[in-house]
Design a protein that fits this description.
Length: 324
């Protein structure tokens, strides 16, 4: 199996999910309806729902995905999209997934309300799963999002930020939802408690690797892959793994960031310095470490040779690395 074929394992279910998302968040107010339709028509990687479905298929009896699994996949994408709407307002990002952001189309008030509405809708559908353990697990994610944003806001342009702080922030902003989605899927499959926790750990490491690679792409990636301008995080003072690794080698980069890119050419210069340092390589190595940690948690695919979804979960790390 090639990494790009992973999503094909659950392709039919993802196509149904894409159709369901817009109807699930249908709103009475035309502005909210238009905002929601705009968000979901933009697409995206659908990584989180794909993980829910892959975990479901690899852990369920006869590799069947239940209606509850499919609903959890939809909920995970709604929560993720709601967080992006709020992120775009905070970061003043004008494009996302290659299209204009909600606040750039309307205004900040509409964008915040649209994000709140999506969080509310996800909570309602989550409650209707009638599984208290899943509700508790996924609900904690929304708290984590807020924690991550507060942490990021406090440490903007802070060159004394540690790698531990970066990993913690990345967990709250990205890995928490991925970890909880994997665990929630395992819960719906009625796995024993220890196995549920193992899928949580798998999702946590996959989520951290995904965020680190995304942060590398912010420096080197094309606008097409990112769906937003290159260097957006850097410009906003969000210091990520490649930047933190590069800072230890470059007093000039430290000076530029500490002065918050006071000159028009500073962003370009900072990116050049990061390219010339070992920061990008060290960041990729860190992502690979988390992918290896995730793979050690999964059951041995050789012991379950016919489980295509399990094989897909093992290949996901390679898919993430191939985004660079």
């Amino acid at each position: 199996m090639k990494p790009q074929q992973i999503f094909s394992i659950v392709e039919d279910d993802l196509q149904v999910l894409n159709k369901n998302l817009q109807s699930m968040v249908g709103a009475r107010h035309p502005i909210l309806s238009a905002a929601s339709e705009h968000l979901f028509s933009a697409g995206g990687k659908r990584l989180r729902p794909a993980l829910v479905l892959l975990v479901a298929e690899s852990t369920s009896d006869q590799q069947l995905i239940t209606a509850s699994h499919k609903r959890l996949a939809e909920i995970s994408e709604i929560i993720h999209t709601a967080s992006l709407v709020h992120d775009d307002v905070i970061d003043e990002c004008l494009t996302r997934r290659g299209v204009n952001t909600v606040h750039s189309l309307y205004n900040n008030k509409v964008a915040i309300l649209a994000g709140d509405f999506l969080f509310a809708q996800s909570s309602w559908y989550l409650a209707n799963l009638n599984n208290l353990h899943v509700v508790k697990t996924i609900s904690k994610v929304i708290t984590d999002f807020a924690e991550g944003e507060v942490r990021q806001g406090i440490i903007q342009f802070d060159c004394n930020m540690s790698m531990t702080e970066y990993i913690e922030k990345s967990f709250y902003k990205t890995a928490s939802l991925i970890a909880a989605s994997c665990q929630g899927s395992a819960m719906l499959s009625k796995l024993e408690f220890t196995l549920q926790n193992r899928y949580y750990s798998y999702g946590k490491h996959i989520g951290l690797a995904f965020q680190i690679i995304d942060d590398i792409l912010d420096i080197i990636g094309s606008h097409h892959k990112l769906g937003k301008p290159v260097g957006s995080d850097l410009k906003n003072g969000n210091l990520t793994a490649p930047i933190l690794f590069s800072l230890s080698d470059s007093p000039e980069l430290l000076y530029i960031i500490t002065n918050e890119f006071e000159n028009d050419t500073d962003i370009t210069k900072a990116i050049e310095i990061i390219y010339q340092s070992k920061g990008l390589t060290k960041a990729k190595d860190l992502a690979e470490e988390h992918i290896q940690a995730a793979l050690t948690i999964l059951p041995n695919k050789n012991q379950i040779p016919n489980n295509t979804s399990l094989h897909g979960l093992t290949m996901l790390g390679e898919y993430i690395l191939n985004q660079i």
